[in-house]
Amino acid sequence: IKDNTLTRTPQNHSEMTYAPMIDRELSYIDFNQPAQNVCGLIKGLSPFPGAKITVKGKIVKVFMAKVAENTDKQAGTIIRVESERLVVAAGTGVIALTSVQPEGKKRMAAGDFARGYQITVGEILG
Q1: In whole angstroms, what is the distance from residue 12 CA to residue 104 CA?
Q2: DSSP states of 62-126 as a string?
Q3: Which residue, 21, 41, 68, 91, has fewest beta-carbon neighbours within 10 Å?
Q4: Rounded-to-integer distance, Cα 76 and Cα 32, Å
Q5: Residue 70 has pLDDT above 80, yes or no
Q6: How many CB atoms lie within 10 A of CB 78?
Q7: How far apart are CA 83 and CA 73, in angstroms?
Q8: pLDDT tens across 50-68, in order?
Q9: Given this model, what pLDDT does residue 88 score?
């Protein structure tokens, strides 16, 4: 751009698509999806409306996550509870949840949330 050497290419209107409206069902995380897709959903919906999971009957918004190592555990299974994060199995791969917000509460580190709600390794998130 600075050197004025780029060539402009007009958009091909025949390949154009529209994104659907974001509804409540779209914001729930499906841990059967690959870890990369789950992280993309979380990033795309953060901060509003926020990606969501259910934990012990409560809705919890997830604001930040990253792809971690691989596992052979069932999707949605808690693998580890660490000081700052909650590590969960996905369809393929593992997701480290780092920032969450329980219903009616303030945003917090996922590890603090897990300790406060007594979430244990082996539990399956919805």
Answers
A1: 46
A2: EEEEEE-----SPTTBEEEE-SS-EEEE-SSSEEEEEEEEETTS--EEHHHHHHHTT--TT-B--
A3: 21
A4: 7
A5: no
A6: 20
A7: 21
A8: 999 999 889 999 999 999 8
A9: 94
Beta bridge partners of 89: 94
Contact (CB, 8 A) for 53 and 114: no
CB contact set of 77 (below 8 Å; sequence gap of 6+): 88, 89, 122, 123, 124, 125
Question: What's the rounded Cα separation, in Å, for the pair 105 and 114?
Answer: 14
Residue labelled with tokens 């998130």: 125
Residue labelled with tokens 């580190």: 109
Burial class (CB in 10 A: 0-12, 13-18, 19+), 114: buried
